[in-house]
């Protein structure tokens, strides 16, 4: 037999939340990265920005499995970065690691 249970410890309404992946920490300080310049969409899979993101110090509240409450530091309309992807390098070469068993022999 098995059972699943959800135990709710605290609930808040009408709060500003961001994905947990957007909240970074350095020591006891928390921050998010925000974009201040206009963005353009890239095939509906994200956005491209010519400017680097800016670190914005924040104060966090309660957090769950997916989201964290932001008490202060950002506004509702701020563009918070949840994930970054670096562009692939041009002329990138791939190499294959040598086999532990050597090259295959012709029969």
CATH topology of the domain at 19-80: conserved putative lor/sdh protein from methanococcus maripaludis s2 fold
List the helices and strands in order. EEEEEEEE
**Based on the structure given, which CATH architecture of the domain at 19-80 is correct?**
Beta Barrel
| Helical residues, percent | under 10%
Content-based structural category:
mainly beta
The top level CATH class name of the domain at 19-80: Mainly Beta
Strands, count: 8
Number of helices: 0
**Backbone CA Rg:** 22 Å
**Which residues form runs of ≥5 with pLDDT under 50?**
none
The major beta sheet can be summarized as:
6 strands, antiparallel
Shape: extended
Mean of residue pLDDT? 81
Beta-sheet strand percentage? 25-35%
Distance between the termini: 57 Å
Describe this structure in words.
With 107 residues, the chain is mainly beta. The protein has a domain at 19-80: conserved putative lor/sdh protein from methanococcus maripaludis s2 fold (Beta Barrel), CATH 2.40.420. The protein has strands at residues 16-19, 24-26, 29-35, 40-41, 47-48, 54-63, 67-72, 79-80. It starts with 15 loop residues before the first strand and ends in a 27-residue tail after the last strand.
